[in-house]
Amino acid sequence: MREVTIAIDAMGGDHGPHVTVKAALNIIQREAGVNIVLVGLEHAITAELKALRADAGARLRVRHASEVVSMDEPPAMALRSKKDSSMRVTADLVKRGEADAGVSAGNTGALMAISRFVLKTLPGIDRPAIASTLPSHNGKTYMLDLGANVDCSPEHLHQFGIMGAALASVTEQKERPSVGLLNIGEEVIKGNDAVKQAAELLRASALNFYGNVEGDDIYKGTVDVVVCDGFVGNVALKTSEGLAKLIAEELRREFKKNLFTRLAGLIALPVIRAFKRKMDPRRFNGASLLGLNGIIIKSHGSADIYAFEQAILRAIDEVRGGLLRRIAEHVGSHAESADETEPATGEMA
Amino acid sequence: MREVTIAIDAMGGDHGPHVTVKAALNIIQREAGVNIVLVGLEHAITAELKALRADAGARLRVRHASEVVSMDEPPAMALRSKKDSSMRVTADLVKRGEADAGVSAGNTGALMAISRFVLKTLPGIDRPAIASTLPSHNGKTYMLDLGANVDCSPEHLHQFGIMGAALASVTEQKERPSVGLLNIGEEVIKGNDAVKQAAELLRASALNFYGNVEGDDIYKGTVDVVVCDGFVGNVALKTSEGLAKLIAEELRREFKKNLFTRLAGLIALPVIRAFKRKMDPRRFNGASLLGLNGIIIKSHGSADIYAFEQAILRAIDEVRGGLLRRIAEHVGSHAESADETEPATGEMA
Description:
The structure is a homodimer. By secondary structure, chain A is an alpha/beta fold. The first copy, chain A, has helices at about 15-30, 40-50, 75-80, 85-95, 110-120, 155-170, 195-205, 215-220, 230-255, 260-280, 305-320, 325-349, and strands at about 5-10, 35-40, 60-65, 100-105, 130-135, 140-145, 180, 210-215, 225, 285-290, 295-300.
């Protein structure tokens, strides 16, 4: 298996090195052929390693970076004034080829702004998008954009389809993942103009385009990849988080009502636990900043060690699967497919 | 208590008279001072009444309508070519004051088009919106628009806030319900232009405006009313339906795994049942077509008898609470508040 090096912004997230260092150690121990560079305040990382009775070495190196981007720092400020932040140095390592991918649990806006500035976008891609996976009946659904782009043109949505399909093909080993366009169905007016035009572009492309899907199709697993603008995607994601939390709390409350329900809860505990494992959002941690000329994974800020490991594993998968090459191929094959249709139009003109 | 008459499109929904007639009978029996007019094919309604060993009478009348709008009929067609449909006659009865409100489980698009044509919008309201309630930690959250308007101007979103607050004040007896504007938070760009401008309008209005909220706030119960455009609202609603279904199925699957888990499920059954009752989407059935000069409630097409009763009860609540007058007051008080701020601007000019 190909040797890969992952750069980790050790200072990012709500817990910083306390989570990132241990997660990195766990990955090094379990995954053959993976090297990690921990980027951040050297003393903080070393102190954490010491507390864990571990040492840096050939497979786990420490790269000092003197600044830290805070969780609520405006992206433009983080980009302009902190040129030696752990986030920036992580992106720089990817840019220079010293790492194959970067992982950060830091501030999403800053990570996107810095990554875009340092790495630029891939040819044929106008805007990067945030992609993640959600659980479904069949396994999982990829969804993008989840908040990087509020207003999207039909062409942007089309590019999200290309990138999402490339991602799913690489990490799910599916030859031609199906792509659906998020729309509204039976209601009064079907979709806005951008979505209607995006559907035409996707239909004419080389992608395995399923057609329009609705919100419930995300969890039904109707398609492998759901495409939408970042406003809608972000609302869908946050709404899901809110509903899952409400359901969990209401269920807990019912089981805590009285002695009998507590007893029933105790007996049902192994079942409830198995269920929780299956639906555990930590398993799905790690969003891809797709469309950059480099692989960057954003972990949830509140990720614990297990969740952060999943984000690192996602980075490894994308590197080993050759994600960037696959996106370039998809962009290329779309361009070809567009070329094929052009002569006809030319003759008509 | 005020005597009210509800017109029911008896033919609407997936089950037609089989559901609507029994639900009407149940309401008549339980609710004092409520009269119902069942609108639709007389022979079908009478046959259903006979099967239920019930008779029409002073409180439950039958009004023949010779046509039926099908569930997948294009709204424009239903409006133009079926002038004696049960849906149209229901709206006509409301228009002529023979009924205080109308309820239909039929095709949403057709119901909106017909209601808007027959009843028109209230003064100061440009577009009707679909409003419904969702469960939250504190009880329920009102949300609109859920799919009537795909592209919304800031002024439309502002009007949705006015209508939603009026609805919540009438049905929840809250003097000044809080209103939140659905937006995306920490991500890269905060909201699109329409949402930003709508926030300014809402902040300047007489409403109890909380500010921006995110998807998870819907279920947290952060505000009484969540305002968004119909595309986003519809996606959030359908996504929630999909997730709730997935969670229910996965939980069922875990309990059915083996003999032990089945036993555990049996013991936990009363708790699971209490939980399901609490989260039962049927309890929240009945969306208000707000902004019309008349009260129209849309029931879910697949509603069963219990769910359809909830939609009828919602209509009764809105009539007794004086919803239309309340919306008019809200529109008026907003206009006043805008007037108050005008002199200052005038002086500056």
